[in-house]
Amino acid sequence: MRVSNTNKNSHSVDKAPDGVNRLFADDLMPRAHTFFMLLQATTHWRALDAEARDAFRERVLMQVFEGFPGLRLRQFETCATRWDTLCAEVAVWETADVDEYHAAVQALHECEYFGRPYFEVISVIPTQGEAWRDNDFALSQPCAA
Known about the structure:
four-stranded antiparallel β-sheet; about 30% helix
């Protein structure tokens, strides 16, 4: 389904070709696994200035992710200075291959990212888009931090 703006006051919805259910994007592509990893920054991380943090992320994350082309990682800092938050950062991992996720996390445990540690894992929330369609998803996927 595509929504297009025809003028300022209206929107039109294009109909999908016959036989294609456009309501769920996953009908057209493999379902990705998304892992929300809640991280707490350690004193080692907080001791680095912004330039050193950027250089570290660039060096280590690029090195680790070269081996996992199907894996995507985005990191978000929380607004800990404005609100009382559970964690300092949220890492959002996306992959179609759960084994790649586990191998990348293991690689980060073997370097200073989790090894020093710069970050401690508070919690991992594993998800899969439209997982309600697969009754056994929760039972079939191991998800260690």
